[in-house]
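Researcher: Sequence recovery benchmark, item below. Answer with residues only.
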């Protein structure tokens, strides 16, 4: 079951990244301005933010089996529809379909983990399926470039979209709730439900979370930083092509290196924080010091637009993406440190919406800056400072001790 979640998450990231990889091709073909592209990316992120609010309830109402099918089918159809449109409005519409559908992946996957694993085993299982996000970012340049060079950019959307529909068939063939699954025996059921007698926690409405300054600070920190990850996901191929003079095929290895570094960043962020705790430091010191270390490491990003060496540029962008993943691993942990377990999901959802809104606004801003200045300099300068500002926000407004409801 975890393997299916891993592949769904991998496909999720492949599908969202196709347009960024093909931006130079499509832009030349359809004569987009940078602002046009920014609006198209913004449409995805607004729909993704709305989907984060809506999809959890839809999945609960439809049930996990068909709720996950609904999500993957919507985003797969949205991906395929990219091959059939040519206008900015058309691309914005299909990006919105893609964004809304993709928002259902993580709620569905997390719900599957909760259904199939006891609480003590969920973190490991979640880590496995979540690694599909980086795997998708690494694999996407390889397969998208190969398809485009052989059959054209429209075919890349059709084939990657079809991967999701194939996954839907596999999910329907394999998935059943544990009690109905023919390969699950009583001992395994007992293990899955080994913590069912834990005390049920009271429901906490979202509005209750907004009574605390920590909620606003964490939401704002995601608003400040998530857009940097989205920027690299959707603009890095174009930036490398335009500033380093390399073609689509030549961007594959640099992008693979960048996202491999991102993968290592997520691991190292958790490791450093844990080491501080093992040495006897408080959770407040461990989380905030780790975040500060990585915030300082992203400052050299400011120099990237001025560098001529491709691999130095790749290294510094990779360092920034690894910083984001290290930041993400710690901010998720900060949420679980500050909020009781029964509201961690709700708080994570609120923070994710903040990140998606930040990404939506930033995408149009990036397009505007590129159209007006023709340069990435201001964007990299702003991006290089965001993690320090986020750290300062957490430092001032988020004491890392658990809130009691």
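Model:
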């Amino acid at each position: 079951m975890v393997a299916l979640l891993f592949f769904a998450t991998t496909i999720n990231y492949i599908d969202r990244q196709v347009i960024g990889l093909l931006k130079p091709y499509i832009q030349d073909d359809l004569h987009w301005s940078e602002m046009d592209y920014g609006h198209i990316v913004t449409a995805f992120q607004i729909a993704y933010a709305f989907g984060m609010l809506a999809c959890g309830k839809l999945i609960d109402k439809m049930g996990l089996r068909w709720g996950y099918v609904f999500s993957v089918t919507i985003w797969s159809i949205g991906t395929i529809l990219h091959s059939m449109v040519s206008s900015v409005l058309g691309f914005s519409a299909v990006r919105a379909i893609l964004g809304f559908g993709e928002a259902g992946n993580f709620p569905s996957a997390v719900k599957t983990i909760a259904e199939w694993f006891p609480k003590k085993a969920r973190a490991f299982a979640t880590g496995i399926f979540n690694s599909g996000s980086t795997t998708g970012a690494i694999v996407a340049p390889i397969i998208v470039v190969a398809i485009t060079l052989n059959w054209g950019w429209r075919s890349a959307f059709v084939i990657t979209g079809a991967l999701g529909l194939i996954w839907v068939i596999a999910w329907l063939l394999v998935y059943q709730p544990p009690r109905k699954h023919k390969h699950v025996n009583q001992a395994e059921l007992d293990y899955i439900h080994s913590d069912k007698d834990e005390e049920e926690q009271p429901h906490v409405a979202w509005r209750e979370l907004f009574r605390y300054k920590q909620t606003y600070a964490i939401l704002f920190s995601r608003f400040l930083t998530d857009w940097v990850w989205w920027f690299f996901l959707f603009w890095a191929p174009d930036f490398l092509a335009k500033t380093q003079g390399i073609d689509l095929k030549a961007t594959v290895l640099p992008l693979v290196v960048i996202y491999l570094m991102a993968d290592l960043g997520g691991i190292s962020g958790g490791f450093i924080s844990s080491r501080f705790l093992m040495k006897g430091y408080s959770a407040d010191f461990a989380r905030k010091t780790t975040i500060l270390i990585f915030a300082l490491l992203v400052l050299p990003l400011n120099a990237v637009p001025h560098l001529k060496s491709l691999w130095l540029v790749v290294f510094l962008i990779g360092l920034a993406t690894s910083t984001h993943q290290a930041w993400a691993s710690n901010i998720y942990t900060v949420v679980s440190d500050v909020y009781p377990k029964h509201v961690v999901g709700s708080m994570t959802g609120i923070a994710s919406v903040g990140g998606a809104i930040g990404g939506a606004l930033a995408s149009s801003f990036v397009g505007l800056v590129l159209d007006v200045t023709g340069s990435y300099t201001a964007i990299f300068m702003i991006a290089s400072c965001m993690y320090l500002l986020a750290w300062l926000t957490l430092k001032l407004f988020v004491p890392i001790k658990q809130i009691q409801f």
